[in-house]
Amino acid sequence: GQFAWIAGTAGPREALSQQVGGLQVGSPTAIRFEYTNLGLYDSSGNIATAAIGSQNYNNSGELRVLVDGNIIATTPSTTPFPTAGTNVWQTFSTSFTPTSSTHTFTFAAFSTTANGSGHVGMGMDAASLVIPEPASAVLLMSIGVLMRRNRRA
């Protein structure tokens, strides 16, 4: 499959952003994704401590979830795995309540330790928003079920 690799330091270097419309103002909306500390590995499969010049990727890291530039959640910090392909993906979820029908979501990588240059390579996959159905749709579905039950009685 495919996933995103997002580099960071003590401040964000890279981030993924997307503007999403069709949100329901005032309805709590879930944000879910999987993440891991992918690090960066050398040709022998070991964690890179001098990649691309002197960049050291042997650092713990986290992903921060931002809505319209404001941090709303942070994943637990994770360490890189000692060799390529041994990382474990974790599921993270949080929620927010839209204040308008359109918001910009950003996922930024941050290093939480500073070995050498303090770089981190966070992985992200399977991101989704769980947008609740409008109350009117649930009400119409409920009315339809009740009408069917009444016809059978």
Mind explaining what this structure looks like?
The protein has 153 residues and is mainly β. Helix content is 12%, strand content 39%. The strands form 2 sheets. The protein has a 4-stranded antiparallel sheet, with no helix packed on it.
Please give a handful of descriptors for the protein shown.
153 residues, mainly beta, 4-stranded antiparallel β-sheet, 1 helix, 8 strands, 39% strand, disordered C terminus
Which shape, going by the Cα principal axes? elongated
Tell me the span between the first and last alpha carbons.
51 Å
Low-confidence runs (pLDDT<50, min 5 residues)? 136-142, 144-151
The share of residues in extended strands comes to 35-45%
The largest pleated sheet is described as: 4 strands, antiparallel
Q: How many strands in all?
A: 8
Question: Treating each run of at least 4 consecutive H or I residues as one helix, how many helices?
Answer: 1
Draw up the topology in text.
Blueprint: E1 4-8, E2 15-20, E3 29-37, E4 61-67, E5 70-74, E6 90-96, E7 103-111, E8 120-130, H1 135-152
Q: Summarize this, please?
A:
This protein is mainly beta and 153 residues long.
